[in-house]
Design a protein that fits this description.
By secondary structure, the chain is of the alpha/beta class. It has a single domain, classed as HybD-like (Rossmann fold), CATH 3.40.50. The strands form 2 sheets. It has a 6-stranded mixed sheet with strand order 1-7-8-6-4-5. A hairpin with a 4-residue loop joins strand 2 and strand 3. Helix 1 packs across helix 5 and helix 2 crosses helix 5. The longest helix has 25 residues.
């Protein structure tokens, strides 16, 4: 499993790597997985709850993604309005097995880590085990994961991660996803017609 990293520098308030690097890395891993599994659809699971700041990264990303029309090629699940979290995720997986098996699944979730600083956005060419922040035992899900680092494993409940930091991670994730998705739809021929992404609201 490979990690593609982008770090946030709190002192200088900037990312060490340019946002374009995140787009390149995300595009690379999505293209590899689509080719490997010979899939034509994607499902993006935005996991978490907006009731807790440190777990709101996924729903905040979903809140923005559902504003865009991706046709029937990409299904966005999870937002601040309809959260996909440790309480209902396992039921969702069981009820949508066929769609999950026929789609490239990208999971977006907050993550506690001792290896990366808070504010980092990590792309992994593997799924995740959701609910770890709450010690929930939920089956592994996804082919690719995008994780926002919100604290360390030993004191996640004590970390006072700022909402502003969550929003920064959300913005960079949205930028990377929209650019990568449009590139893939056009170049990878995910659908038989060329569509243009547009904001529905």
């Amino acid at each position: 499993m490979n990690d593609y990293k982008i770090y946030y520098d709190y002192i200088n308030e900037k990312y060490y790597n340019e946002r374009e690097n995140l787009v390149i890395d995300l595009l690379k891993v999505i293209q590899q997985k689509l080719s490997l599994y010979k899939l034509k659809k994607m499902m993006i699971l935005c996991i978490g709850t907006d009731k807790v700041i440190y777990d709101s990264y996924g729903p905040l990303v979903g809140r923005e993604l559902i504003k865009y029309d991706f046709g029937d090629t990409i299904n966005i699940v999870g937002s601040t309005k309809n959260t996909l979290n440790a309480l209902n995720l396992e039921r969702f997986i069981n009820e949508h097995k066929k769609e999950i098996n026929n789609s490239l699944v990208i999971c977006i979730d907050a993550m506690a880590s001792n290896n990366y600083p808070i504010g980092s956005v990590i792309i992994r060419d593997d799924g995740i085990i959701p609910g770890a922040l709450y010690n929930k035992k939920i089956p592994k899900i996804g082919d690719i994961s995008i994780c926002g680092i919100v604290g360390n494993k030993f004191s996640i409940m004590d970390n006072e991660v700022k909402l502003d930091t969550i929003m920064d991670m959300r913005d960079i994730t949205i930028d990377a996803l929209l650019i990568a998705i449009e590139e893939i739809i056009i170049n990878e021929n995910l659908i038989n017609r060329k569509i243009k992404l547009y904001n529905k609201k």
